[in-house]
Amino acid sequence: MVGEYAMRKGRVYGTVLVDVETGRPVDLLPDREAETLAAWLGERPGIEVICRDRAPFFAEGARAGVPTALQVADRFHLWRNLGEAAERCVSRHRACLRAPFTLPRQEPVKAPDAADGSTTSPWPTGHRFADRTREKHAIVHALLAQDHSRRAIGRQLRMTHRTVKRLADAAAPEDLFQGQWQNRPTKLDDFKPYLHERWAEGCTNAWTLWEEIKAHGYAGGYGAVRAYLRPFRGSTPTDARSPTPRTVTKWILTHPDTLQENDRLKLKSVLVHCPELEALTRHVRDFAQILTQLQGDRLLEWIAAVRADNLPSMHTFVNGLERDIDAVIAGLTLPWNSGIVEGHASRIKMIKRQMYGRAGFQLLRKRVLLG
What are the residue boundaries of the Transposase IS204/IS1001/IS1096/IS1165 DDE domain, all occurrences included (predicted)? Predict the structure, then answer.
């Protein structure tokens, strides 16, 4: 396996070579030039398989050093390159991400009217805690009716298992009432008719109404007024901010079964407004299937499908695959990969930090090979 490591990140890089069978480092080279790698490989003609990333100098060095060896492109780097191409493609269609959409929300559970026979209920109508508990109770029982498990409901609603159990076990919201504040008078009671009158006149600013009733003798806080007026608004919440290209790319690269429900709905809304991104999502998921199931024989068919769509960024990615097609097909067919090399690169980084930059390449090489 062939990979790179940084002597000075962004400036000086070397090459690390690892035995694909034992997982042990074989040698360290002071640079990542094709000639240096070709010379090292030329002294070892028995090498049969070379796992590498898609850097052109590694490909050229492997071809020159051991022409008969089978080159295998690393799958991790293939997926990363695909992700970069997908993000560029999403950025080109940034305008499609600004399309407004509203996530479906559970309808709020309204407090029953007195005409519904609920006058005997100890729960005060319009109390924020009572209404919130009614709403939670209704949502939990609606999800239970749809055969959702209690654990799934807790994850979806972000409730603890104990809270979900209490709501699910209660046949009615009144069963959850603790009896400490029912029908208890509040400081706001004397001013509620005034609030209703002013709201009907068109004054819907809670701060303004709070200041007005303060002038009439109200001694309570602004929070109580705002909470009391909240049910009057009845507005439907929407997501105001558009997702970023990187966020949409993350949704596209994530397996549909592991994508959160809200993210899945947002992605669906984006794809409805942009046929190009819908095609991109289809190609990414097809490539993921090829990669995870080692179906390299389908790669040429996948490349032809990508070229049939107007996706310039993906065409650039495909051009790179075709320049290294044999190694890419081998990487998508054989079980070999260069993941161990990435681990050794991290180990080299740790050793460098232990050395505090006071030793050169020769000592670093000895510590890596003999450690």
Answer: 3-98, 249-367
**Looking at the DSSP assignment, which residues form a beta bridge with residue 13?**
6
Over residues 165-210, the pLDDT tens digits come to: 989 998 888 777 665 555 567 888 889 999 988 888 888 899 999 9
Q: Hey, CA dihedral for 276, 281, 286, 287, is it positive or negative? A: positive
Checking DSSP bridges between strand 49-52 and strand 70-73, what pairing results, if any? parallel
Residue 24 region by backbone torsions, left for phi larger than 0, else alpha for psi between -120 and 50, else beta: beta
Contact 75, 293 (CB under 8 A): no
CATH fold group of domain 2-74+337-370 = Nucleotidyltransferase; domain 5 (3.30.420)
Residue type at 110 in one-letter notation = K
Cα gap 117→114, rounded to integer Å = 6
Mean pLDDT of 314-318: 93
Q: Which two tokens stand for residue 193?
A: 């008719």
